[in-house]
């Protein structure tokens, strides 16, 4: 074993076969994926309507436009301060958490 | 006092070997490389610290190392030795990967296939050097430039070489910015490196949702051996793109993958005990690994040039080098080498397509090798 | 080249059966249902993808499926087959559940008990159809409308039916908005559906702290078989309410439950291989499951009407339908059906009380069945 | 097996017994929990003082009232920007994190 | 109806023992202590709830307790019984611990060594009371005031005493604010308690990066038995300080440690079944544990006074009490006792140095005991 | 067993030896760590340059100084509101997440 280039021809032939089949399989699979992707927009326009397109309520909340008046500023600051307190709270807990 | 003598014999100084010292130095070097060069730090730091821990000489009677039955490290190493961690990492990677650029330019996927030539040529090389078929398959996959895939296949085909294969794979992934640029410059002309590519088109949410399921079916009906790795990769991606499972995707790409990464890196490092690791085989594996990275890079670049013979919208052949995967470092290298010729040429986005295709490609290659070579 | 032939025989196309194709289509349907209808997406997406993965035909010699010794999926499935994931999910649910509405109106708890009649009638039905006692117990618990409880009991009493029971339980939980409304309307008059209930009182922090410990002691001293499920559920709730372990509660209800949910859903899906899943038993289990959901809904509604005979503050009997658990979907269905009669009637908060009581109720029912039927 | 309605009477009687006992146990347990909850406020006023009521320092931080002056606005914005930078930093790390 | 009788025999009321009732009361007491006094709530709440769960009497035939083969709780307890959870907790602790104060004033490290005298004197005491050598070693480590270290060593040396040792260790860690102050006042003069110490110097990022690797090498080359605990502790700290693995450090000190803490605490609690826990040995272990905390505190304080004989910059001997570890409670106690004499004396930062050194010190002590006493 | 103080002298002598060796090992290890730390600043100035000192680009982003003008305020508030919406979104998902 480990004696360079002294392996028998059968092993190398089998190895070569595996390599050729192997790289061929990789190419076939990725070419098919590639073709599928290329065809996908057309497929979709055929079967339009099976999957939703940006119609989900949960993601379609609108950014409010009038975010400039003082009430919003106060709200924003309140939230920021709240967040900051939360953060400090968590940090305190982290320090405590040390005592495992 | 005999107790003192008895104890002194158990200290590390007493049984320290040169091999241990070398491995500890390599572990320290990994950490320094990660910190100073920022090369794959999320893996080099755990592996480096693991290598240090695994090479502290311990008392034969105590169950301490990853190879000792019932030791803590062996339980944690179970996820490596049984190939459990790699699919979980793929789950997290799937949940962070945006396949948009690949969907918008599907012909770039072929570059990710071409780079897998490195896998099979290295397989042949390993056979030539006298490794068994199964071992050669596991060594060849280093050319896939994907740590989890390499560990998974090595665990299945050649567990006795797992440490060396994993270290080789991650070392070269870390060294991508060193290995690839000279090869890329050697195989391309300046005119080719200056090619600008068209910006990718906008991909619809619907396409992104369908892609993981369809790609999984296509790939694994052809190569069922890849069912676990690709199943997890595309499961993660479906969690990301379905829009209704965002909280699962977030956990998969943060807490879950981080926990697995720490345990995988640390225990792979700890498995590099000098006595089992510093062997002639390991050196051969490192040599073959370097060759496979070089071949894979060349394969991607040359195939891009070959494709250009038929295309009107030419591909910048540098982009082919990203087909090795090593996500996202090799894509960054493409960007960097491209900008050295033309600072206004932004190849990163285009390079991401073969980059992620390379991940899929080497998982398929691993599936093929496993199916053919497993007893 | 025989290697090519050898390999082609291993491809999925060669060994694909009609059963596999049907199961893959079901998996895709689950994913579409989750995305389009938002029905239990956190479970239908993992289960759907798992079913696709589990039905790619693989080579007999390779350890790939959840049933193959030493395969990655079998290790991940271990948490299902040994009943480990369900209590962990209960830990997370406990850490997210606010029992306030239940504490403020304790008589609504009885609706959560009444709905368990579905469990025991289905148990009898399964016996009649010729299932063994243990199998019948595991099938009956589908009527509890709690996925983790169903998986836990099936793992203990009838592991051979686990896949079918889990899929039935989650399918019907997802279909609660389809199954329940007609039954609710059938069994109630318009006047009953218009009943408005008094707003719940404010519950003190102290009550919320004491509740998990006291409820655990009461329930498990009577039914010790529920000790693991309820122990974890109330442990999670104590972490939430104790005010001094907030960081643990946060992790339990985010990273921890997400990781377990992904693995549970995916491997349960992957366990639905056509060869073991597409059996006459599975169809019977699905039929019994549908019946059990209907009976449980009717049980809750009718018991609310029965209670109204004695109460001055009438209960809106729609609220009884939430006693099946399927948290929180059945409570939302109550709200929806109520608002169809009177858009200003807000039943959601009231429905949460029998909803969470139903979780406790079916865990107790599972404990009783396990204690009596385990050999 | 699986021949509808052909099981023996003993099995059905046993099954019926289990069902009746089972639903009874469920009701007894939940009725007891229900009664306990109903009695809890009275129990608590009896043994008042064993468990704390909103006395925990860590949760009783007050929302500041004067959250409107410019100093606070600056602080809030500073924190927001800091958070945003943190977010970007994390995103960068996520991108890097890809290289597993 | 015999089924009813059969079932009633399985209820908890039927087989409840006084021992179970006592243990449930202790569990409730732990929870109250955690909520009202804020003593180590992250451990006392899980342990308390676990003790309640573990003492619900269950039917002999059913696999429910941590000691029943194949039960869910046994699988979760596996991480305790095999010593897997403690190193993972050390990983998280390493990722949250800032060793700066220790690096800026290295002589304070010796106080963390001195406090380990409690470990070895308790070891001798346990031998005197008739415990075996291995048992005595496991009992002695209670004096290390580190729950994970105590559980780890008990799992390796005396699994039969693990429950009692773990409960004793965590109880006394929770009671540090009660146990330590009288001893500290007894052994110091008012002048000593008034000593103010110089503010610590600024420590460079580079020192913090080198420290975990160097300290690991020094400690484990001398005491290789500590390789797992210290390997994980310093791995976590390296993740924190390397600046390139922040995301791993964040997960280690949040989701990862939280999940392990919940499972460890809950299952350790559940292992305290009255029948195995309420033994004469447990009482002796509690007595020895109290003694070991007292001795360790005295050891730290007296050694600080001893050091002061040679130092010009005197150490406030109160700081020595923090050498027992019990991070960070004993450091807080030092601060509190110091401020009772002088409200403007801030000892907390100085006390953190021996505090974290005590963690390292008891891990080394555990390594020594394991190496010498393991068969 | 467990009969106080009746153990044989050999065991105690061995126990004493272990204790003395043990505490000595603890001291030796921590003294060496202590000495190493004390020497570290000097060692570092000798081999300066192997480890980086605060040179990492990723952590050295500057806090912008001019965070006071109205554009930034608007941006900050926008981000705050966005965060708040995200939070609500996550809460909704948590409620949904209940249906496990
Ligand atoms: Na690749
Ligand atoms: Na239920
Ligand atoms: Na200690």
How would you describe what is shown here?
The complex is a heterohexamer, with 3 copies of chain A (about 100 residues) and 3 copies of chain B (about 375 residues). Chain A is mostly helical. Helices cover about 65% and strands about 0% of the residues of chain A. Chain A has helices spanning about 10-45, 70-95. The radius of gyration of chain A is 31 Å and the shape is rod-shaped. Chain B has helices spanning about 1-10, 10-15, 20-35, 40-55, 70-80, 85-95, 100-105, 110-115, 115-130, 135-140, 145-155, 160-175, 175-185, 190-195, 205-220, 225-240, 245-270, 275, 280-310, 330-340, 350-375. In chain B, helix 6 (about 85-95) packs antiparallel against helix 11 (about 145-155), helix 6 runs parallel beside helix 16 (about 225-240) and helix 9 packs antiparallel against helix 10. The longest helix of chain B is centred in the last third of the chain and has 29 residues, at about 280-310. Chain B is globular, with a radius of gyration of 21 Å. Chain B starts with a helix and ends with a helix. Chains in contact: A-B, A-C, A-D, A-E, A-F, B-C, B-D, B-E, B-F, C-D, C-E, C-F, D-E, D-F, E-F. The structure holds sodium ion (NA) (3 copies). One sodium ion binds near residues 358, 361 and 362 of chain C.
């Amino acid at each position: 074993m480990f004696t360079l280039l002294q392996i028998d021809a059968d092993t190398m032939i089998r190895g070569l076969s595996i390599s050729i089949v192997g790289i061929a399989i990789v190419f076939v699979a990725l070419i098919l994926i590639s073709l599928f992707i290329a065809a996908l927009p057309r497929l979709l326009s055929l079967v339009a309507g099976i999957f939703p397109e940006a119609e989900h309520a949960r993601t379609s909340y609108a950014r409010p436009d009038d975010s400039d008046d003082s009430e919003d500023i106060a709200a924003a600051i309140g939230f920021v301060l709240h967040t900051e307190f939360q953060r400090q709270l968590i940090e305190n807990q982290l320090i405590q958490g040390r005592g495992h | 006092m005999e107790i003192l003598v008895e104890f002194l014999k158990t200290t590390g100084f007493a049984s320290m070997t040169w091999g241990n010292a070398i491995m500890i130095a390599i572990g320290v070097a990994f950490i320094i490389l990660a910190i100073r060069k920022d090369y794959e730090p999320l893996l080099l730091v755990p592996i480096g610290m693991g290598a240090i821990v695994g090479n502290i000489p311990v008392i034969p009677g105590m169950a301490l190392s990853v190879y000792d039955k019932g030791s803590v490290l062996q339980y944690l190493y179970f996820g490596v030795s049984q190939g459990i961690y790699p699919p979980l990492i793929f789950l997290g990677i799937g949940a962070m990967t945006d396949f948009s650029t690949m969907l918008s330019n599907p012909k770039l996927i072929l570059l990710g296939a071409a780079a897998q030539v490195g896998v099979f040529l290295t397989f042949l090389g390993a056979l030539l050097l006298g490794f068994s078929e199964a071992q050669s398959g596991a060594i060849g996959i280093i050319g896939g430039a994907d740590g989890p895939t390499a560990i998974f296949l090595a665990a299945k085909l050649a567990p006795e070489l797992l440490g060396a294969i994993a270290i080789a794979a991650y070392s070269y992934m870390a060294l991508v910015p060193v290995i690839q640029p000279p090869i890329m410059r050697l195989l391309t002309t300046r005119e080719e490196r200056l090619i600008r590519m068209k910006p990718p088109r906008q991909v619809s949410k619907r396409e992104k949702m369908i892609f993981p399921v369809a790609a999984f079916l296509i790939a694994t009906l052809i190569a069922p051996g890849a069912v676990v790795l690709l199943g997890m990769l595309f499961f993660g991606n479906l969690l990301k793109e379905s829009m209704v499972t965002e909280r699962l995707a977030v956990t998969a790409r943060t807490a879950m993958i981080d926990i697995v990464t720490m345990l995988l890196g640390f225990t792979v490092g700890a498995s590099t005990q000098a006595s089992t690791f510093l062997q002639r085989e390991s050196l051969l594996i490192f040599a073959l690994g370097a060759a496979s990275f070089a071949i894979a890079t060349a394969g991607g670049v040359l195939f891009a040039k070959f494709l250009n013979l038929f295309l009107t919208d030419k591909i910048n052949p540098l982009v082919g080098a990203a087909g090795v995967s090593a996500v996202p470092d090799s894509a960054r290298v493409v960007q960097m080498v491209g900008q050295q010729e033309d600072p206004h040429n932004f190849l990163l986005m285009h390079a991401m397509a073969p980059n992620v295709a390379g991940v899929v490609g080497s998982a398929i290659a691993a599936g093929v090798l496993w199916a053919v070579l497993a007893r």
